Amino acid sequence: QVQLQESGPGLVKPSETLSLTCAVSGYSISSNYCWGWIRQPPGKGLEWIGSICHSGSTYYNPSLKSRVTISVDTYRNQFSLKLTSVTAADTAVYFCARPLSGHGDYDYWGQGTLVTVSS
Amino acid sequence: QSALTQPRSVSGSPGQSVTISCTGTRSDVGGYNYVSWYQQHPGKAPKLMIYDVSKRPSGVPDRFSGSKSGNTASLTISGLQAEDEADYYCCSYAGNYYVFGTGTKVTVL
Questions:
Q1: pLDDT per position in chain B (109 positions), as tens?
Q2: Cα separations in angstroms, B31 against A50, A98, B71
Q3: A105:B51 CB<8 A
Q4: A58-to-A31, A44, A87, B26 alpha-carbon distances in Å
Q5: Are A102 and A109 in contact (CB under 8 A)?
Q6: Cα B92 from Cα A31, distance rounded (Å)
């Protein structure tokens, strides 16, 4: 059974870099799919951040592209998110997910991790 | 890069049908048959209910159906049940990235 688990600091200072990791079990991330990051500010809607494919290709939300980097560690079977120059607007629950067929149809999700940006 | 437009809320009595619209542009909803729908209960991760406009993942009841016309996609819940009360989000491919809808709260009266 495929499982995803986000981890990382729950508190980040303004202007610093947010770093999260998604550990995957039950499936090799190098086999297939474009693995994604999605976030949700408290009380608000979902926002797609970006994805990294098994080929290594990356795709980012244009509104975040200048600040986002997604990378993969196939040895540890995990992928990571870095978001630079964070502000309070980046406070959100961050989810990692795997698609069903590959077109935004995420059927496996992590439980989500709340990251608060505050001094 | 704007979020797709959904009604803030819809409601219905048990057994009734409700339809949620998701309006985009020809650069996203209208340009591709890659619209998905998610159900989210409070404090939980979203659950995939519909993908590729009208396909249902295994385990999703056939009370949930999806369709698309032009730049607007729709999710219909037939035979509304208490457990269907949740937030629903559409999501569309927009050419190398994805855009979510603003979200709709479904209330079962």
A1: 799 999 999 999 999 999 999 999 999 999 999 999 999 999 999 999 999 999 999 999 999 999 999 999 999 999 999 999 999 999 999 998 999 999 999 999 9
A2: 20, 23, 8
A3: yes
A4: 16, 26, 24, 24
A5: no
A6: 25
Asked if B1 lies within 8 A of A63 by C-beta distance, the reply is yes
Amino acid at A105: D
Q: Which of A46, A61, A101 sits opposite B51 (nearest CB)?
A: A101
Nearest to A105 among B3, B52, B89 (CB): B52
B89, B97, B103 ranked by CB distance to A61: nearest = B97
Which two structure tokens, joined as six digits, stand for B92? 């569309």
Q: Say how many CB pairs under 8 Å bridge A and B.
A: 71
Please give the single-letter amino acid code of residue B55. K
